[in-house]
Amino acid sequence: MLNFPLPYQNELIYSTVARAGIRLALSSPKQLLDEIFQNRKVIATVDLPCHLNAIINQFPANQVSLEDIAYQHTLFPIYAPFVPEDRRQQCLQWMAEVSQGSIHLALGVNASRLKPIHKLRYCPACFKEQLELYSELYWSRLWQIQGACCPIHGELIDSTIELRSLHRHDFITPTYQTCPEQIQSKATSDSLFITKKLLELLSLPSSESPHYEQWTRFYHQLAQKNHCIRGRNYISHDKILDKIIARWPSKFLGQYNLGGLKSETGWLRSIFRKHRKSFSYLEHIVVIEALSNKEWSFSAILEQVKNLNKDSKDNNSQNLNICVHPNHFEYREKWLKLVKELGIKPARSIDQALYAWLYRNDKDWLLKINQTFHQGFIPQGAKVDWYNRDLTYARQLIRLYNELIWDVDSPRRSAKWWLSQITHVSTIEKNLYRLPITQSFLKRYSEDISSYQIRRLTQVLIEIKMQSQDLPRWRILRKAGLSDERMTSETAKFLNMALQYLRLN
Question: Are 439 and 464 part of one and the same domain?
Answer without folding.
Answer: no
